[in-house]
Specification:
Chain lengths: 342, 273, 303
């Protein structure tokens, strides 16, 4: 009897959802955790604007975004590490990189003695040595030299990094490769690397969680995660010797410095930008879509959303500390979106 | 004296162990109940998740999603496992039966994450989508050996005389099995089903790469769906305080549901005895 | 003329078909695992088990750090859990009266029923801080001269993962042991007592000695469960593929690396290596279960 009952109830539920289902299209995406705070705000707001479509995005890391779009198990991928030529070759169709925004990778730290005080100053050398495991204590000579007005504690540095495949990692290791020959030889850059040291957190959320809960730790996350969790983050010395705090302006300055050489497929790295105001650890983030969409309805909805994201959507960027794309870049991107067929 | 001392020490160790277990149990359950209960609000049960970092929102889609995934899994596994269990009991001496029995034993020991990557390769990739369906298939594979074994054991426990009586009355074999034997074994079999439901309701690993998760409603079984344990996992490892709070609330709801299922199964065992 | 009644034949076919479907699921599982791990097997062969490097950038994959992590946490979990599980089982079988027995049975059933992800949640927010702030420093103070207790204490490490695992496998080991103890014939126990043995001696001689084989089987089943445990471990072990003697160091297990990296393995060799790890995990739990069942069968044969 109970079995009968269960079966009846389930059939009703399924019938109801399939009837229910006809009115709203669900579009699935997966990938980067870097832009997740912005994307989730976008999808929430866009669902109010166009009530006939929902975007379900799972932030599983840029590596996941690339893997799942290649396997075609999602409608769009998202990544902060642009796909390599090799990866693009594996795809069953042409994949477009659509830039959505740019963000900063910040060095968050949890030093109880410094809470609420001025931001810590770090040079590229210090950062790469910490992540190589060469600088082990907070009161190391090199760190103290850059921060003469604070008394750093004699404690071990607990290093946090990503345990999953991440575009944030890609941006960070790209930067480390540019500023440290030793890093480039020993570790290299990628969405997932063989870390010399560090506790692994899953997603930007995981790393932020580790730093938040572990005293004397340091980690790298997208700036949004630092803000939303009230975590202190460092000023970094850029290529031209200026200490820059990660802000909208400094991210935009970095984009503008590097955008002079923007390729047509938008696959460009913007780390280590020069100039007085550029924050050195920045990255673009892209949505990955097939130029030829398989499904007419979903393709149309996807294109409409992308156009909105690159125009009206950019108004949500500032509050979440992502840099809006420069106007002329937006126009170029819109033209690329127009080439998507469905 | 030495012997008495050994005896005393032994008893001491035993009592300490019991205390440790009870203490750990109380510590965990009271903490989860307290933290979970204080984290719950009405929104949790009726609202969808909010954007990252914003307070509020709920897990209604995860709760419903879990129910649907488990129900569908039961739909797949219950008939198949019961029939397999009947086969194993009725034809227990056949070579094929021994092979099947061994295979099911192997299946019951497979870690659930392996079943997850199996269903990913078998269902998700060819279908080119994550789906509630794939999640249910994964869970039904976990349930299969449990229910089949219970069915076989319950049927084996029925005295041969009952079966022979049925046959002697001229009933066809299949009627004897269904109307007499299965009915007699029903409480035991239902207990087995309830216990396996309780088990898969809390499973996370097999859903990671199959049902995938969804921040909205899934619109059919061919779409990714949110599930309670999955949502708890994502929220637990996140740094947002509000998400952590919701993870505790979810844990509370999950434990309550699992306990209800176990409680029901215990009632059935008592009825059987 | 009586019409031929095929209903029994049909019934038999349906039953055999169901059994065949069940069997084919298991066969399919093995095939899928082998098929997807083939690339990695071809590339690394058996060196996979001794390579210590897990490097997705340079595409070098070795499973040793995960094998180490799995073995370390599982064995440590056994060390903690076995004495306690057997004590509980003995208590339930030999010492407790009805009310206490029922209460403890409920406790053990519930401990077994708590989903893994909830153990993980509790582990992150309750156990890890306790280990980091209290237990770890104390252990380091008294045993810091041993390499096992050196190094920084983060809370998300081998030790915490082992503690949670031990809680999770205790119900398995203790419930099987309890049934074994209950099955010891009463006269065996009474004979020992009649000869003047203390309770401890009686248990040692009549109960533990005779159930030794069964207890080993129970322990192996608990070990199998610990080895395959995924969610709770992933949330507490720190997720670093390394090999370290220090229990305060973070690590990874075969199951946790799959959970962390599967959805994102971009290159084919990377994904194939994860399937290879899945295959290894499957084989290890398979062998443990076979040995365990064999021991239990052997036990009932010698009766």
């Amino acid at each position: 009897m109970k079995k009968m009952l269960i079966k009846i109830i389930t059939t009703c539920l399924f019938i109801s959802t399939t009837i229910f289902g006809q009115r709203v299209v669900l579009i699935n995406g997966a990938g980067a955790t870097f832009p997740y705070p912005l994307y989730s705000k976008w999808f929430y707001e866009y669902a109010k604007i166009d009530k006939t479509v929902n975007f379900n995005y799972q932030s599983i890391g840029s590596g996941g975004g690339i893997r799942q779009i290649l396997a075609q198990t999602v409608d769009f991928g998202a990544t902060d590490a642009f796909m390599t030529d090799n990866q693009l070759k594996q795809a069953p169709g042409k994949i477009l990189h659509i830039p959505m925004t740019a963000g900063a990778v910040v060095l968050i730290y949890n030093i109880p003695e410094l809470k609420g005080k001025k931001a810590l100053k770090l040079t590229p050398e210090i950062i790469s040595k910490i992540y190589l495991g060469k600088i082990k204590k907070w009161n190391d000579k090199l760190i103290q030299l850059e921060n003469p007005d604070v008394s750093l504690p004699d404690k071990n540095i607990v290093v946090a990094r990503r345990s999953d495949g991440s575009g944030t990692t890609f941006i960070f290791t790209e930067y480390l490769c540019e500023v440290s020959q030793e890093w480039e030889n020993k570790v290299g850059k990628g969405t997932s690397v063989n870390w010399p040291v560090g506790l692994g957190g899953k997603g930007n959320e995981g790393v932020a969680g580790i730093v938040k809960n572990t005293p004397y730790s340091i980690g790298y996350v997208e700036i949004s995660y630092a803000m939303q969790n009230n975590l202190d983050y460092a000023m970094v010395k850029n290529k031209d010797g200026y200490y820059v705090k990660p802000t909208i302006e400094s991210i935009t300055a970095a984009i503008e410095d590097k955008a002079k050489n923007m390729p047509d497929d938008y696959r460009i790295s913007i780390v280590n930008a020069g100039g007085k105001n550029s924050y050195p650890i920045t990255g673009l983030t892209w949505v990955l879509v097939y130029q030829k969409q398989q499904d007419k309805v979903r393709g149309e909805k996807l294109v409409q959303f992308l156009k909105w994201a690159v125009t009206d959507g950019q108004n949500y960027c500032k509050d979440l500390l992502y840099a809006p794309l420069p106007k002329n870049l937006r126009d170029k991107i819109l033209k690329t979106i127009e080439t998507i067929e469905y | 004296m030495n012997r008495k001392l050994k005896d005393k020490i032994f008893r001491f160790i035993i009592y300490i162990s019991v205390c440790v277990v009870v203490f750990v149990f109380l510590f965990i359950t009271i903490y989860v109940v307290y933290k979970g209960f204080s984290s719950i609000n009405l929104d949790f049960f009726i609202r969808l998740p909010k954007p990252v970092g914003e307070k509020g929102g709920g897990m209604v889609n995860a709760i419903v999603g879990s129910f649907m995934i488990v129900c569908l899994a039961a739909l797949f596994s219950v008939p198949l496992s019961i029939l397999t269990g009947i086969y194993l009991s009725e034809y227990k001496n056949e070579k094929f039966a021994n092979v099947v029995r061994s295979a099911l034993e192997i299946l019951s020991g497979v870690p659930s994450i392996i079943i997850g990557i199996f269903v990913y390769g078998l269902v998700v990739v060819p279908m080119k989508r994550f789906s509630l369906l794939a999640g249910s298939i994964a869970l039904s594979i976990i349930m299969l050996p449990l229910i089949a074994k219970t069915t076989e054991e319950m049927l084996n426990m029925i005295p041969l005389s009952i079966k022979e009586a049925g046959l002697a009355l001229g009933l066809k074999k299949w009627k004897v099995v269904f109307y007499i034997l299965l009915n007699t074994a029903k409480p035991g079999v239902l207990t087995g089903i309830l216990l396996s439901l309780a088990r898969v309701f809390g499973e996370t690993a097999p859903l990671l790469f199959t049902s995938f998760g969804n921040r909205f409603w899934h619109r059919s079984i061919l779409e990714p769906a949110a599930a309670l344990p999955l949502q708890i996992f994502v929220y637990a490892i996140a740094p947002y305080d509000d998400w952590n709070r919701q993870a505790w609330a979810g844990a509370f709801v999950l434990i309550v549901l699992v306990c209800i299922l176990i409680f029901l199964s215990r009632r059935l065992i008592l009825k059987y005895k | 003329m009586r019409k031929k009644d095929y209903s029994d034949k049909v019934f038999e076919v349906i039953l055999k078909l169901s059994a065949a479907i069940s069997l084919s699921i298991v066969i399919l599982l093995v095939l899928v695992l082998i098929k997807h791990s083939f690339l990695s097997i071809k590339t690394f062969k058996l060196r996979f088990f001794i390579n210590t490097v897990w490097d997705p950038v340079f595409e070098k994959f070795g499973a040793l750090p995960f094998i180490y992590g799995t073995l370390l946490t599982s064995f440590l979990a056994l060390v903690i859990s076995v004495p306690i599980s057997i004590s509980i089982a003995l208590f339930l079988s030999e010492f407790a009266e009805r009310k206490l027995k029922e209460f403890l049975s409920v406790v053990i059933t519930l401990l077994a029923a708590i989903p893994s992800v909830i153990y993980g949640l509790w582990g992150i927010f309750v156990l890890a801080p306790i280990m980091r702030n209290y237990v770890g420093p104390i252990l380091q103070k008294f045993f810091g001269f041993l390499p096992f207790f050196q190094g920084n204490i983060y809370g998300l490490d081998y030790l915490s993962a082992s503690v949670v695992l031990s809680i999770m496998i205790t119900p398995t080991i203790s419930s099987i042991s309890k049934e074994l103890f209950d099955a010891v014939p009463k006269n065996l126990k009474e004979a020992a007592l009649a000869l003047g043995a203390t309770k401890y001696e009686m248990i040692k001689i009549s109960v533990l000695k005779t159930t030794k084989v069964g207890i080993i089987a129970a322990i192996l089943l608990g070990l199998g469960r610990a080895i395959g445990e995924t969610m709770a471990v992933t949330m507490i072990i720190g997720n670093i593929p390394n090999i370290s003697l220090s229990l305060f160091s973070s690590g990874a297990t075969l199951a946790s690396v799959i959970a962390n990296e599967f959805a994102e393995a971009t290159e084919d060799l990377y994904l194939s290596s994860l399937y290879y790890i899945g295959l290894v995990l499957f084989l290890v739990t398979l062998i443990l279960n076979i040995i365990s069942k064999f021991l239990i069968k052997h036990l009932s044969k010698t009766k």
